[in-house]
Design brief:
Shape: globular
Bound molecules: zinc ion
Cofactor: Mg(2+)
Organism: Candidatus Nitrososphaera evergladensis SR1
CATH superfamily of the domain at 4-15 and 71-113 and 133-215: HAD superfamily/HAD-like
Low-confidence stretches: none
Protein name: phosphoserine phosphatase
Mean pLDDT: 96
Largest sheet: 7 strands, mixed
GO molecular function, one term: magnesium ion binding
InterPro entries: HAD-like_SerB (IPR050582), HAD-like_sf (IPR036412), HAD_sf (IPR023214)
Number of helices: 11
Radius of gyration: 16 Å
Order of helices and strands: EHHHHHEHEEHHEHEHEH
CATH architecture of the domain at 4-15 and 71-113 and 133-215: 3-Layer(aba) Sandwich
CATH class of the domain at 4-15 and 71-113 and 133-215: Alpha Beta
Distance between the termini: 17 Å
Strand order of the largest sheet: 4-3-2-1-5-6-7
Structural class: alpha/beta
């Protein structure tokens, strides 16, 4: 039976966060943090406001930032082991496709859902195109990328029943997909909400622990 695993990128596949790697290079981290803390903004509105902060930076700035963030320990080994066992493996992230595709290619992922930054020539315009999805399925996450919507979309695309899917994430932004997947794993959880949303929690920074749970069928 085919199986499918959807991974969050920042803080899960990566030991770090792209937006902060980029923001810190240009002294924008304070501004990014204040947008993230702004309770007046709905989640996807935060994505719009943060993308606007990066207007004028270049594609090369974005690629240098993603290169500066290391993969989680044993990430390549864990993903290739899942692929060898016939799993479909992909990334569902509210980060930017230009950078996430570098990670997806390195790990030979089968699918990627991410926000698309708009470019004019080589420059980021500050406009972001968001896949959304929550409005179609009645999800309350209101994120720029509804992870549950995309998990369901790729499960359908690859003909994998939802009970044979797994979702792995590290923050409350991943809750809608870890709850929907057959197996949900909180990997190095950054908040209590994600840790309490899954039965399986991995607190060791080692992606092989995730692969082993999945291959043993030990995650629920
Ligand atoms: Zn959602």
């Amino acid at each position: 039976m085919a199986q499918l695993a959807a991974f969050d990128m920042d803080g899960t596949l990566l030991d770090g966060r792209l937006v902060f790697a980029l923001a810190e290079r240009f002294g924008l981290d304070g501004k990014v943090r204040s947008v993230q803390a702004d309770s007046k903004l709905v989640n996807y509105e935060k994505t719009i406001a943060i993308a606007a902060l990066f207007a004028g930076l270049t594609r090369q700035d974005l690629l240098a930032a993603i290169e500066s963030v290391p993969l989680a320990a044993n990430c390549e080994r864990a993903i290739s082991l899942l692929k060898e066992q016939g799993w479909k493996v992909g990334i569902i992230t509210d980060s930017y496709a230009t950078a996430a595709s570098v990670v997806a290619e390195r790990l030979r992922m089968d699918f990627l859902a991410a926000n698309e930054l708009e470019f004019k020539g080589d420059k980021i315009t500050g406009t972001v195109h968001m896949p959304l999805g929550w409005q179609e399925i009645g999800c309350t996450c209101k994120l720029s990328v509804c992870k549950r919507f995309h998990l369901e979309k790729y499960a359908t695309k690859f003909g994998v029943p939802l009970e044979n899917t797994a979702a792995i994430g590290d923050t409350r932004a991943d809750i809608c997909m870890v709850r929907r997947a057959g197996a949900g794993i909180a990997f190095m959880p950054k908040d209590d909400d994600i840790a309490s949303a899954t039965k399986s929690v991995v607190r060791k920074p080692d992606m092989m622990q995730v692969a082993q749970l999945l291959l043993l069928g030990a995650a629920h």
